[in-house]
Specification:
The chain is built from two helices and four strands, in the order E-H-E-E-H-E. It is an alpha+beta fold and about 70 residues long. The chain has a two-stranded antiparallel ribbon with strand order 1-2. Strands 3-4 form a two-stranded parallel ribbon. Strand 3, helix 2 and strand 4 form a beta-alpha-beta unit. It is flat.
Length: about 70
């Protein structure tokens, strides 16, 4: 049974307090790219990159969690 992307994002935003915790000025914390809304499999990486994205896709992940997002300098 899939999880809801929106529920996962809401939960993570709450526990990580993404709106209140200051970060690097160029960092955009939180959801940066959406799928169609269902998550069956999650992958994780330190940095967002084409290699990380390709690896997530190759392994059937619907959600890629990264420490340094798409807009990190």
């Amino acid at each position: 049974m899939p999880a809801s992307l929106r529920e996962i994002v809401t939960y993570l935003d709450q526990i990580l307090d993404t709106r209140e915790v200051p970060d690097y000025p160029g960092a955009l914390n939180g959801l940066q790219f959406e799928n169609r809304g269902s998550v069956y499999k999650v992958a994780a990486a330190v940095d967002f990159s084409s290699r990380a994205l390709d690896g997530a896709i190759e392994n059937g992940a619907d959600l890629l969690l990264v420490h340094h997002g798409m807009f990190w300098g």
